[in-house]
Specification:
This protein is mainly alpha-helical. Helix content is 94%, strand content 0%. The radius of gyration is 32 Å and the shape is flat. The N and C termini lie far apart (69 Å).
Length: 100
């Protein structure tokens, strides 16, 4: 415990040193960050045609999947509509007190 003040001082010295190094190199760090962002934006811009093509293919596959499953979707919708009245009837004992 007697070395605790020395240890705290060493820790503060290290943090102060690191902070000073960061401040001294801030222009370089900011420049590098700007270059990274610009490179990322350029890469995204360059890939935009491929991204758009993939998005279009994804949408077409989704639409095709819906079209392929229309019979099942219609059957499920009909079943939901057919069971709705009995579901409401079953829930009436709980719904009536909640409405009153």
């Amino acid at each position: 415990m007697e070395d605790l003040p020395k240890l705290i001082q060493v820790g503060l010295d290290i943090v102060t040193f690191i902070g000073g190094v960061i401040v001294e190199n801030l222009p370089v760090i900011v420049d590098a960050a700007v270059r990274i962002v610009m490179t990322l934006l350029q890469a995204l811009t360059d890939a935009l045609p491929q991204i758009a093509e993939c998005a279009l293919q994804l949408i077409m596959a989704l639409v095709q999947g819906i079209i392929d499953n229309v019979p099942a979707l219609v059957e499920a919708a009909v079943q939901m509509i057919a069971t709705l009245p009995s579901g409401i009837e079953d829930a009436l004992p709980e719904l009536i007190p909640a409405l009153v």
